[in-house]
Amino acid sequence: MRKIARTPSSPLLSSRRGLIFGTAAAGALLATGCTSNESNDESDSENKQAADTDDKKPGKKVTIGFAGPQADHGWLNAINDQGKQRAEEYEDVTLVNTEGSNDTAQQIGQIETLINKKVDVLVILPADGKALTRVGLKAMRAGIPVINLDRVFNSPQAYRCYVGGDNYGMGLNAGHYIGEQLKDKKNAKVVELAGTDSLELTGQRTKGFDDALKNYSNIKKVARQSAEFTVESGQSKMAELLQAESSFDALWNHDDDQGVGAERAIKQAGRDEFIMVGGAGSKHVMDAIKADNTVLKATVLYPPTMAASAIDLARALGQGKGVSGLASLEIPASLTLYSAVVTKDNVDEYLPSGFS
């Protein structure tokens, strides 16, 4: 798995102890800490309940500033919802949200306002990681720990902890799933509908996908188009792919939002000779996978629950509070969520996490 972040070397922040995971992770840590190799469901349940109660027990009050881009995309809207809902679970957390902006200068101004308000911790999902590195550094130098969410800053000194999805792993898992579906087909052809090429994450997703396909000598990627994570761009770029390739066996689409447009183009073209794999985990796609009556057969998760994890970590930093079951005294430099593949076989398990 790719290392995304290192511990920053800034001396301006004092050492903070502990880590608060989501309740499910805390329960898992406690369960694996048992000395017996035999399962004890009742004991595990009691331990999990105790961890849940202990984690949410009110402590030192913490004000968390939350700044992200404009929520003009289903996944970004889910990020905002996850962060807000998680903060509401804690009596000791006050969440201060910015309006959100895709304009880097405006987002920098919003974050500087949070710095001037002297919030205890900042959670920042930058519209552009490179462009906002400076304001991350400014917060850290002001003694405000930064949780960098999803789009990473250029310098590890601009954040205390990075929380995000595994973009390389997302492509890797999509490629392996498609590879297994086509491994017995001679001269199989796949196409890729990528996201915005100016974003580093898009390149990571494509590299993971290409690396996975190297394991299948019978499969060749014959075309790739880059869309812009929007319904409109997904439709237009998918139409181009369909026109350029008279037939193929599988499509990987990086993003379920732009996938809505891709589905429209596919339907208009009357094509159904291939399987389609989505990316991110929208409820719309999960419903289609469950119904099993379209080309959509799977999606690779990029969980917006990372925002809830960021709130957990921000609260931990603000309180210097730990959780039993974790040996390290410090929160990690990075937390990367796994990109599970959702299919008809396991979709019921993931449906509750599907976003609109």
Features:
Rossmann fold, 6-stranded parallel β-sheet, Peripla_BP_I, single chain, 356 residues, Substrate-binding domain-containing protein, disordered N terminus, signal, alpha/beta, SBP_2_dom, 6-stranded mixed β-sheet, 42% helix
CATH topology name of the largest domain, in short, is Rossmann fold
CATH class of the largest domain: Alpha Beta
Mean pLDDT across every amino acid position: 86
Task: Tell me the CATH architecture of the largest domain.
Answer: 3-Layer(aba) Sandwich
Write the element-wise H/E pattern from the N-terminal end onward: HHEHEHEHEEHEHEHEHEHEHEEH
Helix content: 40-55%
How far apart are the first and last residues' alpha carbons, in Å? 29 Å
Instruction: Specify the oligomeric state.
Output: single chain
Organism: Streptomyces gossypii
Protein name: Substrate-binding domain-containing protein
Domain Periplasmic binding protein: 64-321
Biased composition (Basic and acidic residues): 45-57
What does this molecule look like?
The structure is a single chain. The protein is α/β, with parallel strands linked by helices. The chain has 2 domains: 23-31 and 60-159 and 304-338, 3-Layer(aba) Sandwich (Rossmann fold); 167-302 and 346-353, Response regulator (Rossmann fold). Helix content is 42%, strand content 17%. The chain contains 12 helices and 12 strands. A 6-stranded parallel sheet has the order 2-1-3-4-5-11, sandwiched between helices. Helix 3 (74-88) runs parallel beside helix 11 (306-319). The longest helix is centred in the N-terminal third of the chain and has 16 residues, at 41-56. Mean pLDDT is 86; it is low at 1-52.
